[in-house]
């Protein structure tokens, strides 16, 4: 879904692409995609072609956040892999063009599912889509990072120690009031970090069904989108991110599967999805899964807090929706605590 938006300087984009993108020809029209709270995303149309532009949001930003240059790099590196991504056309790191860095990529023609229930689809389609989601995730975690030039895409060391420290710092920088559950969750995660098992792979960082695109009339995945949080890290963070999303209420807001009779809809259980992933990667199983699940609840709480703070500062992509996210932070923190207790 797109909507009219006046925040993008279309004339500046048009002039830049004419000067820097071979074969480009205007005139240019732009509309903003309604979904997405982090990096504003626009559909660009010319008489000959459609593109997608992603930019950093305007205003003062947290250090290392909204790194569109990293998004561009990782997708360009995956161009010839089994992980489907759009074609990358051009990266502009000159803030003077439109006020922030941006890149332009291929506009994929397909369909997305906001809700994993996939209301209106038959059971075979639901099963096929989630099997593709599983297959692509396993393929992502078997990419040879040296061969595709991404060995330096993330620092060495224990991924979870590094991520907990990073997101705690980000959370503190956007903290608007003390949340007891969040403080408790941070403390417990710091104490329970598993020993490093030497799994070091490319991770997406926000792997969920609404960041995937599928064939219009089939279940084949044709694109993995929104790579802002990608890095070199531990694959179980991505796997647990899928399961975390499914713990939430169904519908467009929660986008989860809590309380859903999955078997009647052809949807796999958490355990079946994990087992299929492990089979594809040749793993015996995943120990201490509750920690990885709690980590994802913690990180999402930190992300929501950052979106809420940007709304208060006037920098949110969708201000009204972003302000509502503040109420979810303690809920996600409590869910993280519950996951640790179950573990």
TrEMBL record:
Record has Phosphoprotein as a keyword: no
Gene Ontology MF terms: kinase activity
Residue ranges of domain Aminoglycoside phosphotransferase in the record: 30-252
Name of the protein this chain belongs to: Predicted kinase, aminoglycoside phosphotransferase (APT) family
Pfam family, one: APH
Keywords, comma-separated and alphabetical: Kinase, Transferase
